[in-house]
Amino acid sequence: MKITVKIIAALLIVAVLSVLVTSFFAVKEISDSFDFYVKQNVSARANVMLSYIGELYIAGGWEAVQAGLQMAHGRRAGGPRGPGGPRQERIIITAPDGTVVVDNNWEYLGQKEKDLPLKNGQEIYLNGQKIGTLYYQPFTVYGLLEESFISSVKKANFFGGLLAVAVALVLGFFLSQRLLAPLKALIAVVAKFSSKNLHLRAPETSNDEFGELARAFNRMAEALERNEKLRRQMIADIAHELRTPLSILQGNFELLLEKVIEADEETLHSLAEEVKRLSRLVEELRELSLAEAGELKILPVEVDVNQFFSEVAAPFTSLAEAKSISFETTLPGKGKKYTFDPDRIKQVVYNLLTNAFQYTGEGGKVKLEVKLLHRKLLIEVTDTGPGIPPEDLPYIFERFYRGEKSRSRATGGSGLGLAIAKSLVEAHGGKIWVESTEGQGTTFKVVI
Question: Are strands 301-304 and 100-103 parallel, antiparallel or unpaired?
Fold first, then answer.
């Protein structure tokens, strides 16, 4: 069922229910009001009647009462009804023994009270002594008026209901068209959306749920478009990274076969380095694919934090001296333990330190700081290199992503180090992020 039909149906249901509920309470209120009015009127009329009956009774007993009532209602015994006709009020009086002694219609005279459909009687007292019971029925015109008025109300509600249904149909149609316009626009974009149309975006025309849906779709589309660009770039980068060592190997082997160069130690060492570079790239790609697929095995063990990070940092001391870079480490005291996979975390720290030394020039500074805070391990690697441009920061952990300054092939590396570090940290349930000011330096932070 289309949403338009659902909206119209919902409005129709609301309209019909509103009319029914309104009619019910209106009729009930009218009926209750009429009943209250009739009861009040009957009570007042009965009180007047009691006084009048008392006067007649004193004057001549029940016969005087019967005659007085007949005269008041314009009808003789056995004669036709007076001008009031069938709408006149009914007055019946029974004696203390239950015998009907007064009936302004002569119908029940002499009969027993228990054999008659009489109710709501009012006892008649004279000088403190009960002389009878009055049964008073008012003019039936009240009931007729009530029925007529209620009928009019029902008729008005019926036509009002028809009008409400018509308004609900029209309003439902136009409301659904207006509400669903953003959704229809989104559907049109989604229908055209494919790998060849990743640039399409849904119009963000409102601030309601449909607008939020359009914005969510656009965020997804932007992510897909960016991922598609990264995928293509990754393929190109992989091809380039593989082509470079393969071209060197191929060229050197051809020269060796043609005996242009000799297979001396220097040539063989150069070829071996290219093979290592190629093997390292393939291994990094394998590790990254395993990590992203959640298939990378993490083997956590309890590690002495000070000893572990001292051993990881040791090889970089000589590198710092060779490049005239100040290398500082700040580690927790000896004996502090923490549980993680030492091989994987060593790889993370190695990648971060390698990256820091790579972009820090002579006279610069690199710092490794490790802290144990609130049952978490915090690792910070800070350098005074050129920093990372703000536009590169959101993508710094992407595979093969290279900024204009901070990550270029001229500095070496496969472009996978930070992506692998991120995957390894997340495999530990941790988080890695970067803070950088262009021209001042960069800090990578890891929490596991």
Answer: unpaired
Same domain, 439 and 309: yes
Q: Are 121 and 135 in contact (CB under 8 A)?
A: yes
Q: What SS3 state is found at 73? A: coil
Residue ranges making up the domain that contains 40 = 3-143
The candidate with the shortest Cα–Cα distance to 399, out of 379, 388, 389, 413, is 413
Q: Tell me the three state secondary structure of residue 441.
A: strand
Euclidean distance between CA atoms 214 and 184, whole angstroms: 11
Q: Tens digit of pLDDT for each residue in 362-409? A: 999 999 999 998 889 999 999 999 999 998 888 888 876 665 444 444
Bridge partners, residue 380, by sequence: 369, 445
Examine the domain organization and report whether 397 and 421 are in the same domain: yes
| Ramachandran region, residue 171 (left: φ > 0; alpha: ψ -120 to 50; beta: rest) | alpha
Task: Read off the pTM.
Answer: 0.48
Average pLDDT score over the chain: 81
Q: How far apart are CA 313 and CA 8, in angstroms?
A: 71
Chain centroid to CA 375: 35
Lowest-pLDDT range, 67-81, 144-158, 184-198? Answer: 67-81
**Sign of the C-alpha dihedral, residues 343, 349, 352, 353?**
negative
Query: Given 292, 326, 350, which residue is the final one in a domain?
Result: 292
Question: Torsions phi, psi of 93, nearest 5?
Answer: -125, 135
